[in-house]
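Project outcomes to date are best conveyed with an example. Our students and postdoctoral researchers have been running inverse folding experiments weekly, and each run begins with a structure described purely in tokens. The record below, which covers 898 residues, was selected by the lab manager from last quarter's runs and is presented without edits.
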């Protein structure tokens, strides 16, 4: 589920600066907490919760840990307390500086070559009061002065090109006492992007469009293909050594003549005969990845470096000369320093100012870095997005409050022996957030107990003293645990909704949540792993598409309060720059299935108008759940077309794999029953239950015909879903590509293949050949000639383009960075929406995926106060309103908060 906060640079500054109205919580305060449950238990924890079973807390390798990770480690920002609690605790000031947002900031290159870089250096054009939007600090700085805590460069149409974040200068510490720095965030990104790690998160990280990251990963795969082995340590980390009881990088590395090795020779050595050019490509790609620190040298802070450079013995040392320098420390001993390869390449360090400066604080030292918009020391990092994919401000905030995490690499490599051993037990994980791990039992029926971290820099704002999270996979058991008082939050199964609502005490605790994203079926159309499967036939897939009654699917899957969807894209609240919902561009759009019918079978592009769709946000609504894509007659026609192409075929055998949860099992049963209802036993669908990690591996390796998935990770940008089918993401063992189906859920279908198939394809109808021309298809789908031709152009990779140039071309188009020719042709935001609508029609026509339902519209019951939501367990402010650990806390849950 994607839960995002939307912002618009078009809003009036006065509106942006409007203060949050402080809501008195006197009437809501729990003077004498009265248990709502008569059988309230005497428990040894303040707050109980439930989470799906975990076999590891390795948040680098496994996506499944994402739910609880915010309580283990601090992201840069987090969601603050509900307004009623904030009125008691007070608000942490948090502003974000806006630079550019004019014609000089079309690109970073243009901005740095404009007068604005100098003229606006310490005075941003405006700032966002993030604290007014319910955002609080985690590891980020909350300096009230100007916009020092965070600042970014925005395009004229309010998209983020790059931004720099200042951390809290070491106030955040790991549970072993180590100071947290920017390096910890870089190390997290580096672990995931290193193909030696084998992280499940790599594809999601690539989808964030960090500059150059896709090329870095691609070059590693090319090396593997060429040499039959991976390149180890592609980020060029030095080895560790222990000095004075602490781990640090070994930076003194000399050749046989006693000369210091360069970073190139020391950090990126040859590992196979003849690989020198390939290694250099990996090195250059690593240095180009858009995630940089302001740290100048390994093992030393910039502040300490500047203070050493002020010493008389170091007057002749030029810190910009070469990859290594040798200084005298305060005791007169030689100190070898090696340059950090990931220093922000845009920053200019004014070493001439060192002698006349006094470095008492980190902020003093940052003045040596000339430009505030770039990283200046080891407590600042800068992220730069791909030029073709600048991000919306809500995308940036989601990166900062959920996607960029820290990891203590020194602990992982030296104490555990590598990232594969991280998170296996309590001993093998470090935390740096508001809680420490008190106890941990992994696996089904296990639990995680968190205790307040008394050393946390913000401990006075941590509410609960002890929290217990039970590992549980059964929704009904979760509800029973809530009723018995063991946990304070449960997602209510549909069968229990009326029972809970009938109880006045429970009714007051119930709330409805909404989310954005598409739940649907994915088909394995990869030609290496599944080329002989009949599922490759689009007529068979279309028979499935129209045979499914999504209304029935809703009630059997447990998503009773959700909505059926027949459109691949899940826009959520996405709006155009003028504030108009993008979904309006899909209204009054239709497609016509192949075949002749007694009644009109035109299908609307969306199941609901935008106005009807808004009803999901209401607690009580009676929106019709009729599935407008359910057309049994059409399904039977497509099946007849399929059978005509395969005379004599008695039965089609297919496998649906699922992760053993009740939801996925029931979804498979509805599919199986739907096919049997219309086609008898012609389709033999095997339902195969697998453990979660095995299921994920089977999907990524292409060992399935049909699977069910939540696709919300694609995001809510205009092109988030449709761009999945521009390139393949299947298996190619010859090129050492052994996983896929993440960027493109079909593995093999692309728009290019669709147009190629129209060039000479023919249909068999009742045994007769019927020519199917491209023109007839375009008219049947209701796509104008102009839009059709533009889609064809975007779907074809040109002969002079490599894969990265091709991606940049279509990404530029969808981010409104039009070529001069496109501008002349009148392309604008509205036409881009028409293109997306046209692509949606093509997706329906060939059905590489089948959209089913929206995600995360459901009823919860909660006694959890303090926190804004429980989509992720960010629990610093959370407490059980029946057992408040501090007197006077508001008896208000997130669903009841103002």
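After processing, the design step wrote out the following sequence:
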């Amino acid at each position: 589920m994607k839960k995002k906060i939307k912002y618009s640079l078009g809003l009036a500054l006065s509106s942006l600066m409007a203060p949050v109205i402080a809501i008195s919580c006197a009437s809501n305060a729990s003077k004498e907490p009265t248990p709502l449950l008569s059988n309230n238990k005497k428990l040894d924890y303040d707050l109980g919760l439930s989470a799906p079973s975990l076999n590891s807390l390795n948040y680098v390798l496994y996506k499944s840990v994402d739910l609880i990770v915010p309580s283990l480690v601090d992201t840069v920002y987090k969601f603050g307390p509900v307004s009623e609690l904030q009125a008691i605790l007070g608000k942490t000031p948090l502003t974000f500086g806006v630079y550019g947002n004019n014609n000089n900031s079309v690109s970073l290159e243009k901005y740095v070559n404009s007068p604005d870089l100098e003229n606006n250096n310490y005075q941003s054009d405006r700032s966002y009061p993030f604290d007014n939007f319910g955002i609080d600090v985690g590891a980020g700085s909350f300096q009230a002065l100007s916009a020092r805590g965070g600042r970014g460069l925005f395009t004229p149409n309010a998209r983020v090109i790059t931004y720099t974040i200042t951390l809290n200068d070491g106030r955040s510490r790991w549970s072993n006492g180590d100071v947290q720095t920017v390096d910890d965030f870089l190390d997290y990104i580096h672990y995931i992007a290193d193909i030696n790690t084998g992280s499940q998160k790599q594809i999601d990280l690539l989808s964030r469009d960090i500059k150059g990251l896709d090329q870095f990963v691609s070059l590693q795969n090319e090396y593997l293909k060429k040499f039959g082995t991976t390149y180890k340590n592609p980020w060029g980390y030095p080895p560790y050594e222990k000095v004075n009881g602490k781990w640090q990088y070994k930076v003194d590395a000399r050749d046989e003549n006693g000369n210091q090795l360069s970073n190139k020779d020391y950090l990126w050595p040859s590992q196979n005969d003849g690989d020198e050019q390939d290694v250099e490509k990996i090195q250059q790609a690593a240095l180009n990845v858009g995630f940089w620190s302001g740290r100048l040298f390994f093992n030393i802070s910039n502040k300490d470096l500047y203070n050493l450079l002020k010493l008389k013995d170091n007057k002749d040392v030029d810190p910009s000369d070469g990859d290594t320098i040798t200084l005298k420390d305060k005791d007169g001993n030689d100190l070898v320093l090696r340059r950090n390869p990931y220093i922000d390449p845009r920053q200019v360090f004014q070493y001439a100012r060192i002698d006349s400066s006094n470095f008492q604080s980190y902020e003093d030292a940052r003045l040596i870095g000339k430009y505030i918009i770039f990283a200046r020391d080891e407590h600042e990092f800068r992220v730069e997005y791909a030029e073709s994919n600048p991000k919306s401000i809500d995308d940036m905030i989601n990166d900062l409050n959920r996607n960029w995490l820290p990891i203590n690499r020194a602990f992982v490599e030296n104490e555990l022996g590598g990232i594969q051993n991280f998170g296996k037990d309590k001993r093998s994980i470090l935390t740096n957030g508001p809680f420490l791990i008190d106890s941990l039992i992994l696996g089904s029926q296990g639990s995680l107990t968190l205790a307040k971290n008394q050393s946390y820099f913000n401990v006075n704002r941590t509410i609960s003293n002890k929290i217990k999270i039970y590992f549980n996979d059964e929704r009904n058991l979760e509800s029973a645990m809530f009723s018995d008082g063991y946990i304070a939050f449960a997602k209510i199964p549909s069968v229990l909704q009326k029972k809970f609502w009938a109880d006045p005490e429970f009714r007051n605790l119930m709330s409805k949540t909404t989310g954005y994203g598409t739940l649907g079926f994915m088909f394995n159309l990869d030609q290496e792993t599944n080329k002989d499967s009949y599922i490759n036939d689009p007529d068979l897939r279309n028979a499935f598409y129209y045979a499914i009654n999504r209304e029935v699917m809703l009630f059997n899957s447990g998503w009773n309060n959700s909505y059926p969807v027949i459109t691949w894209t899940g826009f959520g609240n996405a709006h155009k720059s003028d504030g108009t919902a993008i979904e309006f561009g899909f209204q009054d759009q239709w497609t016509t299935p192949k075949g002749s019918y007694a009644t009109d079978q035109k299908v609307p592009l969306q199941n609901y108008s935008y106005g009807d769709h808004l009803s999901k946000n209401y607690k009580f609504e009676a929106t019709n759940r009729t599935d407008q894509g359910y057309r049994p007659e059409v399904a039977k026609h497509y099946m007849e077309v399929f059978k005509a192409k395969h005379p004599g075929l008695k039965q089609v055998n297919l496998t649906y794999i699922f992760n053993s949860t009740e939801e996925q099992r029931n979804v498979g049963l509805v599919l199986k029953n739907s096919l049997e209802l219309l086609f008898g036993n012609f389709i033999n669908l095997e339902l195969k239950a697998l453990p979660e990690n095995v299921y994920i591996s089977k999907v990524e390796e292409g060992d399935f015909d049909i699977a069910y998935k939540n696709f919300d990770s694609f995001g809510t940008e205009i092109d988030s879903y449709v761009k999945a089918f521009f390139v393949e993401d299947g298996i190619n063992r010859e090129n050492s590509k052994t996983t896929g189906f993440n960027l493109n859920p079909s593995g093999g279908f692309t728009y290019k293949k669709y147009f190629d198939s129209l060039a000479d394809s023919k249909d068999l109808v009742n045994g007769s050949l019927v020519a199917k021309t491209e023109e007839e298809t375009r008219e049947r789908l209701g796509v104008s000639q102009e839009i059709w031709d533009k889609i064809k152009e975007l779907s074809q990779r040109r002969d002079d383009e490599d894969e990265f140039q091709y991606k940049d071309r279509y990404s530029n188009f969808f981010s409104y960075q039009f070529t001069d020719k496109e501008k002349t042709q009148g392309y604008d935001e509205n036409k881009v929406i028409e293109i997306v609508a046209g692509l949606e029609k093509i997706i329906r026509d060939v059905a590489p995926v089948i959209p089913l339902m929206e995600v995360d519209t459901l009823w919860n019951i909660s006694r959890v106060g303090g926190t804004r939501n429980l989509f992720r367990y960010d629990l610093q402010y959370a407490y059980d309103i029946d057992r408040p650990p501090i007197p006077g806390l508001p008896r208000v849950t997130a669903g009841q908060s103002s």
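The radius of gyration is 29 Å. Confidence is low (pLDDT under 50) at residues 1-39, 767-771. The training component of this project remains on track.
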